[in-house]
Specification:
Layout: H1 4-9, H2 12-17, E1 22-23, H3 30-58, H4 68-96, E2 105-106
Antiparallel strand pairs: 1-2
Helix pairs in contact: 3-4
Length: 109
């Protein structure tokens, strides 16, 4: 079934039941690592904002709500650590070849 004549002469049911070839693209690392990088950036920004807000509260420069600084600090740190832990997990899955099927593309017949 390698030639196009054989594919044309097959019945539609047989064509539908035949598995489609899967092509694995060698793409950039951005495909695998974009989510943890975005999470780490958001976490870093929240952590920095929490630090600034806590500094403003404790230096009594402005009227800042009491819990806003610590809340931003803790949420930012949570996002940052989650992203940092996520990177080695993805690296291990890429080495074992477990994620390659998720980013594959099917060819039309």
């Amino acid at each position: 079934m390698s030639s196009s004549n054989e594919m044309d002469s097959m019945s539609p049911v047989r064509r539908a039941l035949q598995p489609e070839p899967v092509v694995v693209e060698e793409s950039s690392r951005w495909v695998y690592y974009h989510k943890p990088i975005i999470i780490m950036v958001i976490g870093g920004l929240l952590f920095t904002a929490g630090t600034v807000i806590a500094f403003l509260y404790f230096s009594r420069v402005g009227r800042v709500p009491y819990a806003l600084g610590p809340v931003c600090l803790s949420i930012g740190l949570m996002f940052l650590v989650t992203g940092l832990v996520w990177v080695p997990v993805i690296r291990q899955k890429v080495r074992k070849g477990l994620i390659r099927g998720m980013y594959s593309r099917r060819l039309p017949i």
